[in-house]
Design goal:
Ig-like domain-containing protein; signal; mainly beta; 306 residues; 46% strand; four-stranded antiparallel sheet; 1 helix
Length: 306
Amino acid sequence: MCGFHEKFINIIWMILMAITLTQEQKCGIAEEGKVYTLSLVIPPGSYKDEDVHIEANHGRIARCTLRTQTCINLHSNLYHTNLKKVEGSSVINVTVYNMTKTRFLSNDIVQFSYAFANDYQKQEMCEPKVFFRPRDIVCLHQITGEGLSLTCTAERIYPGGKCFFLLSFNREMSTIHSTSTSESIEELAEMPIYFKFNCNIFISKSTLVPALYHFNLSMYPSIYHSNTDVMYGTNDSLAIILDHPKLILENCPEYIEENKEVQCTCLNIDTSPINVFINWFTKDGQTVLGNAKSNVLKVKAKRIAQ
């Protein structure tokens, strides 16, 4: 399974290496809860002796003086700003200690800018892409008469969600036909700027055989709606073993008296729990009896399966 996981990671990186950065990505990616640093560049010859006001979503966070190359931080517990010369330009570096989207609830866009004190004309603007990486992914599987279904859930993600599945069959990567995937997303009532995200993969019973099925999942936020987003995701894996169950029938005589009720029970004697879908048939195998979801059959008949 370790080798398959390495192949999965290699495939992810092969996808990323084929992607080039777009103009939109100049401002960078800001992961919520992490330190984020951006640079605002003032071209050479622009207001050399003026003060520059630094803003975050139109709220002032610092004041820098180009002449002395110094900055005064107005919210030092949240931000740190410094100014330095780089190839003739003045570069203002803004560090956000804890990028939290809730700090910018007045606007869905997190925006940084600078303005000169004499005319307050904004000269540079930066809108980083803020995302929340899914954590503590929970995956649950279910086996029914239709097939095998695996659903993975992240309780919080932003700004959207996508899933990437790779499936191995008996420890080897394999294409399994009759599979389908689906995704759903819902807004969190208690935190409306975030979403709960579910993704599902389904394998039809027509292709299921006793084997080891190993699922590798990458769940990631929809930042640029491209394959680059997968590098900001969270990986998880799950192994599911399908085997013939060890069952016995209890109180299931071959013949019973007509109109006499018999309660026949199907018991699993394996030491570990199993997922089963139960159908009861008459001995000729033609007639289905009872509730297919129950391991107990109550029937009035001349003959039932043993």
